[in-house]
């Protein structure tokens, strides 16, 4: 489990988005309980927004308005049809800890420019060679 945010920083009925390795995690507080899901909408891969939960303690996608349960990730209203992935979460010494498992593993390295078919990274475009 990875430490994320102080429990006291989460207002009841609100959520935050936290990066754990390669995983964007939505952490929601409902009453005195915390829940963690993927923070990426399953409809069009948009990041869900931090802030107050929608009525019914649901997470609303800012793009097309899908509603998800932060408790079990289920879809309450489309257009999304696939549930959010959930992660175990608990409070340890006043800090929310989340286990994202292999979802937090680092992304594969960018291919080397010498790799056949590889394109230069955006960071190297337009910069003079040193
Ligand atoms: S991207 Fe979330 S509902 Fe469409």
TrEMBL record:
Location of the Rieske domain: 2-98
GO molecular function: 2 iron, 2 sulfur cluster binding; metal ion binding; monooxygenase activity; oxidoreductase activity, acting on paired donors, with incorporation or reduction of molecular oxygen
PROSITE patterns listed in its UniProt record: RIESKE
SUPFAM superfamilies xref list: ISP domain (SSF50022)
Keyword Aminoacyl-tRNA synthetase: no
Region (Disordered): 102-130
Alphabetically ordered keywords of this record: 2Fe-2S, Iron, Iron-sulfur, Metal-binding
Name of this protein: Nitrite reductase/ring-hydroxylating ferredoxin subunit
